[in-house]
Amino acid sequence: MSDESNGNLIKDRLVQLRCHFTWKLLIEDTEVPDLENRVFDEIEFLDTKYKGAIYNLLAYVKHLKGQNKEALQSLKEAEDLIQQEHDNQSELRILVTWGNYAWLYYHMGQLAEAKTYLDKVENTCKKFASPYCYRMECPEMDCEEGWALLKCGGKHYERAKACFEKALEVDPENPEYSAGYAISTYRLDYFNRSTQVSEAFCLQPLKKAIRLNPENAFIKALLAVKLQDVGQEAEGEKYIEEALSSKSSQTYVFRYAGKFYRRKGSVDKALDLLTMALRATPDSVFVHHQIGLCYKTRMIQIKKATNWQPRGQDREEVDRLLPLAICEFEKALKLKPTYEMAYVELADMYAEVGRHREAEDIFQKVSRMRLCNPHLQQEIYYRYGRFQEFQKKSEANAIIYYLKVVRAEEQSITREKCIISLEKLALRKLRKNALDIESLSILGFIYKLKGEMNQALECYEKALRLAADPENSVVYDC
Question: Which GO terms describe its molecular function (predicted)?
Answer without folding.
Answer: RNA binding
